[in-house]
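2 proteins. here.
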Amino acid sequence: MLNLLLPLLFAPTAPFAAQEPSLDDYLRGMSEAELYERRRTAESLVVQKAIPAVVYIETGKQVQWRDFFGQRQSTLRRGSGSGAVIRPEGFVVTNYHVVGGADRITVHFEKTIDPHPYVAELVAAVPQEDLALLKLEASPNRIFPTLELGTSSDLMIGERVLAIGSPLGHTHTVSMGIISGLHRDVPVTDPNQPRQTLRFEDLIQTDASINFGNSGGPLLNINGELIGINSAVNTAAENIGFSIPVDRVRRVLEEQLITPGSYSAWVGFEVSEDDELIVTGVAPGSPASEAGVRPGDRVLAVDGREVAELGAWRLARLGLGPARAVRVLLGRDGQRREVSFLTWEKARGLLWERVGATFRENAVGRRRILEIERLREGGPAAGIGLDRGDLVDAVQPASGDELARPWRVGTRAELAGLVGRLKPSTAVEVQVYRERELLEGVLVLD
């Protein structure tokens, strides 16, 4: 028995398995650059690309109310949300419920990128789609970082996504998840009108953490493309958020947010409704006409920024405020030339175009009244003998029109609002005072 045990006791043992190197061993020979590069992930690259174009939005609204004693009080109601810059001129898309009804809108970028706060103007909104478009007030030469619009037509359930926003005031917070579902129909209560519930259809569902303050911020795919605008969260559950698909955002932008009706300034010429951007008409006597814009010219750039298609032209127009100097680069027969002129207030331009006159707002006693300050040669107003200094007392569209009743108009906006609702060639009775004498005439709108 002893002879049998001895070989077992003294038999050579198997060598120990080689130990795997520790993390410290693995990292020890790497340079600082290699260590940094090892930390990079697809998600961190998306954040690095997108953060400069994501904004934190603060809003303020004065709310009037009466206290227990019937005294009128005023309170500043504050709100916040997020948004995404989609055009270098400073256009920001966000949710309407973030900015609707606000008296003041302030936009902040990530502080290490741009510490300067910007006042923003609500230039267009479609409340039923919960989308709004803001324009940042900045120098015309200021170029803002933008997010690239992707597509929501090929989204896959399970693909990775990132949400960036400012939940509960924690600005530029990043969360990661997947697309949990598509084509969701969700009822949403408007925080500005708690009794009103809207129903949004065909939303993207994600488990990327979305909280109050994320509204209006971007949902991004792993390539850093904007695929949705974060809009709603299910407060009864965890990690159930919803985003408006970017294809719908793009459609609303093109069809409703950047239509000619949204423009606040009048430039005095129109272009073709295609990507050729050919000038089709110029209003006689307009600043554009006097600067040399002619039918047949092709619009190439506005304020030094190229406009290569209709959408870019409409956004450029949307960014022009009234009484602002604008530079337009035109092309014709291979030649280029730049013209400069002042834009007009939208109401002033419309009245010049349709009525053939500009008006000054005056006060007579307690009443506001419009005084003719300039007439267009050959225009409707000049054609019936109206003159500078005439005071417009009332206007009345011809009988048979649904607006056929006397209208007293004391501001350009009121008269322009009425004229804008009337069809071309509508006859309008006009009553004016000239040296205290009441005169009447009928003009036909252009």
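next one coming up
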Amino acid sequence: MNGLRISKGVERGQPFEIEADGEKITAYEGETVAAALMAAGKLTTNQTPKRNESRGMCCGIGLCYSCIMVIDGVPNTRACQTMARPGTRVETQKGLQR
């Protein structure tokens, strides 16, 4: 395994870096931002507005909005529906941003 990624029997595209809360992590062509974050062990995508409780990916198909993050400066973006691209900048979202 490469981090938390399964490597046996899996063909991946080219690796590249994205930035998550100021830290460089590896992503691969064809991965979503959420998949790259989870593989790097980063499970928190946002914090609740009232209690600042950590939240992360839940459904993985874009229905629950539990994985919203600030991606490339755009708040409330679903990480499970956003493809990672070289240079993508991701930030943990604090509360409801508008």
